[in-house]
Amino acid sequence: MRNLLQNINGDKAIWAIAALLALFSFLPVYSASSNLVYVVGNGTTAGHLIKHALLLFLGFGIIYGVHKIPTHFFKGLSLIAMPIIIVLLVFVLAQGTTSGETNASRWIRLPLVGFGFQPSNLAAVVLMIYVARYLSKIREIKVTFKESILPLWLPVFLVVVLILPANFSTAGIIFSMVLMLCFLGGYPLKYLLGIVGTGIGCLTLFVLIAKAAPNLFPNRVDTWMSRIDSFSNPEDTEANYQIEKAKIAIATGGVMGKGAGKSVQKNFLPQSSSDFIYAIIVEEYGLIGGFALMFFYLFLLFRIVVVANGCSTIFSKLLVLGVGLPIVFQALINMAVAVELFPVTGQNLPLISSGGTSSWMTCLAIGIILSASNKNTAQTKESTVDIDESNPLEVLSGQL
Fold first, then answer.
1. Which keywords annotate this record (predicted)?
2. Measuring CA to CA, which residue among 257, 299, 302 is closest to residue 278?
3. Domain ranges (residues) in the chain
């Protein structure tokens, strides 16, 4: 154990935040899993806790392994991974249709281990690395919009379009984060405004086609529309069942909370161990617990900015912001949904909610941030090595 701790490098504050969030998650996940056991009839509370522990153990293994990889390696890895991601997204989109609130087009069932894998979560991380690589490449040169269509916007368009039919919230977050990263990376604002307009037009066209021909391809347009209608019409209590139960949980939690494991609404609130776990946390630990959890995510945001500011290259700065900001953004969206500041999205609370793929991809992103903050894997100045970034093998082997 001592040797393991000695081999841990990178920003110690980020390590501490990730560890504290993961350790704390055992309490609300164990408490909320009673809904799955006694209401849904799925497994045992101990079984769900062991599964959660296993997923987090593997997740921290991902953090440890990734944080040892020199940051410049991710340039080539993103080029190699992008075609694989596109193929996986096409595969999951083609394999299933919607069934109630569950969409078979989101998941790939992994053989042997029995876990479901959601390629859209991996696509989000890979795409942000890919965009950071491109922006760092054009940082010192002036490019036209036409020159950036194929290398930048075509991959972004493919990923967002392939995720959109099954998961609008994830597609929206990815698109928003790409736009934000491009803005931070100095991409011309007039081009970004054009992309925003094009995106809105494409989304409108997609919704119109889906409504006109609902059986043409699997989609969840009706689910999105009902969630937006429910958010704009809070009087419709039947459609707002989840939100109403979440608000009751938060209201009855008070300042100090009812205490660990004493939540009542966990037995009535669907997705209490994943999408709405923040409401259960506030019910059990009060506003103090809810604000403390928010503080840790905001402190993580602060450390992400500090790490990015301390990086020596444009790529590593954009990389840290590209994979780090979505973690905090997703956490704030999850909390906003629980208090009815945002429509229901289905986004988990990073490192807290139960779930495999989302936790692993959060851990992957944290590992990348730690790699950039790790002085032992600090990369050589990009300007000192002549590397052809169009060749991923050269990128991987360069600067060793």
1. Cell shape, Glycosyltransferase, Membrane, Peptidoglycan synthesis, Transferase, Transmembrane, Transmembrane helix
2. 257
3. 2-397
